[in-house]
Design a protein that fits this description.
45% of the residues lie in helices and 12% in strands. It is built from 16 helices and nine strands. It has a nine-stranded mixed β-sheet with strand order 3-2-1-4-5-7-6-8-9.
Length: 470
């Protein structure tokens, strides 16, 4: 059976269980089970290649011990084991430092939950998962594609669409930022890890030539995710992409730490992120920031922090809403600081349909480098390709080389921005407004059309009345 069909059959089994309610719970359930199978497959490979390696999971709780035998424990015995032994033990693994995979397992299971109530159905799911060999490279790559489709399914689970940024956007941003092994790369609101996986793929394709290159790349990754489900999904995503120690993905709120406490040791070379926007942070979070930046708008706080976290010469690509471009008050002070401390060299204006149907607000990609003030900003209008009604989630964004004014590219100076009180909402000057005609003539034609419609309606009524009298 193909991996795609295996995943579909697992989801069908879960739908029969009375404890699993909706897509979000089904994906969470699927994720912790896949996580344990992936860890066990990797453990078995590492035990062969590294004589001193020990699994982070106690022997009696390893997948191979309780799940691998298709005729193994089931029913009430299996449920008792999962709920009373497996989960409590994994949640209480020793707190360990970086490089210890026990920390990864503990963080994943810290807020995880077993939603399924039927031990027979759990056994059926476990047996299906056993059909997948995560040490098989071709199968792992194929499953990675299925896994990304599972992430897309989150968008039908209430507000969970906040976890997902279209692959076309993340891949474009990673390509333009061009990360290299050894450069410290951070996503401070990583969701399910889309920017991380695109960056990993980019570096492996272009720069990773040796085992040392791979190790340098992996050691330089950093990420934080506030919510439990996307954190679990991100860690699993990293394992699927060949990251043996995803403990760098922290389950935390980046904004909860005082702004001033981020010092030189916290600086990074690259920030790639789509911070949550449109939401409000909990009471007290804004007090972690300087007075001039205090707000409860999440995207604004992240922008302030990103500028602080970049090293001199560091570069960032950030997804931000239109409101950041034209907003006033704190937003004005943020943009002033951004243009003074960084070279905001590029803004890509995306179509409103990029995040539809889950959000229809306009979004932008801001590219900047820390260390020199902004002189010029190039704007690029990314349009929906001709022949498409809306933005494609998968079609790659075309890259434009060079700085030349075209019908979709234009330049503004820092003085232009300052003259508009730091309003960055510059519209395309090359767009010609559609000529809809003389308003008075249009109103006259509308009035005439309404009269014709009324006359036709009266004729139809007369015909129906005559028919009823016959």
């Amino acid at each position: 059976m193909s991996v795609r069909n295996t995943v579909k059959s697992i989801q069908d089994i879960m739908r029969q269980d009375t404890g699993v309610d909706g897509d979000a719970q089904r994906i969470s359930q699927l994720c912790w089970m896949f996580f344990l199978k992936i860890i066990d497959d990797q453990d078995q490979e590492l035990e062969v290649t590294n004589a001193g390696y020990r699994s982070p999971i106690p022997e009696g709780l390893q997948w191979r011990t309780w799940a691998a035998d298709p005729e193994g424990i089931t029913g009430d015995t299996l449920m008792a084991f999962v709920n009373n032994e497996l989960f409590p033990a994994l949640k209480e693994l020793p707190k360990s430092g970086p490089g210890d995979r026990r920390r990864v397992v503990r963080d994943v299971f810290e807020d995880a939950y077993n939603y399924m109530k039927s031990g027979q159905l759990v056994r059926q799911v476990v047996n299906k998962i056993n059909d997948i060999d995560f040490n098989n490279l071709a199968e792992k790559q194929h499953f990675g594609e299925i896994y990304e489709q599972v992430l897309n399914d989150l968008q039908s689970a209430g507000n969970a669409g906040e976890y997902y940024t279209p692959r076309a956007v993340t891949a474009f941003m990673a390509d333009r930022i061009d990360p290299r092994p050894g450069e410290m790369l951070l996503d401070p609101a990583c969701g399910t890890g889309g920017f991380l996986t695109c960056s990993i793929r980019h570096m492996r394709q272009r720069y990773v030539k040796t085992v040392e290159d791979e190790e340098r790349m992996q050691r330089a990754l950093r990420a934080v995710e506030k919510k439990q489900l996307p954190h679990m999904l991100c860690v699993t995503n990293m394992l699927l992409h060949g990251i043996h120690d995803p403990s760098f993905v922290r389950h935390d709120n980046t904004l909860a730490r005082p702004y001033i406490s981020y010092g030189a040791s916290d600086r990074v070379d690259i920030v790639l992120t789509n911070p949550p926007f449109g939401g409000r942070e909990e009471d007290g979070i804004e007090s972690n920031f300087p007075k001039r930046f205090q707000t409860r708008e999440t995207a604004d706080l992240f922008l302030a922090l990103i500028v602080r976290l970049l090293r001199p010469g560091g570069r960032a690509a950030v997804v931000l809403p239109d409101g950041t471009l034209f907003g006033e008050g704190v937003k004005t002070r943020l943009k002033e600081a951004l243009l003074e401390e960084c070279n905001l060299h590029t803004i890509v204006r995306l179509p409103n349909s990029v995040f539809k149907p889950y959000a229809s607000i306009g979004t932008n990609l801001l590219f900047f480098e820390k260390g020199e003030p902004t002189k010029d900003i190039w704007f690029y209008e990314h349009r929906v390709p001709e022949g498409q009604k809306s933005y494609s989630m998968t079609r790659a964004i075309a890259k434009r080389e060079g700085r030349v004014e075209t019908e979709v590219a234009w330049r503004v100076t820092a003085d232009d921005v300052k003259a508009r009180a730091y309003n960055l909402d510059f519209k395309n000057p090359h767009t010609v407004a559609d000529d809809h005609g003389n308003p008075e003539e249009l109103l006259a034609r509308l009035d005439e059309a309404e009269k014709e419609t009324a006359a036709l309606r009266d004729q139809l009524k007369a015909i129906l009345a005559e028919a009823l009298l016959r």
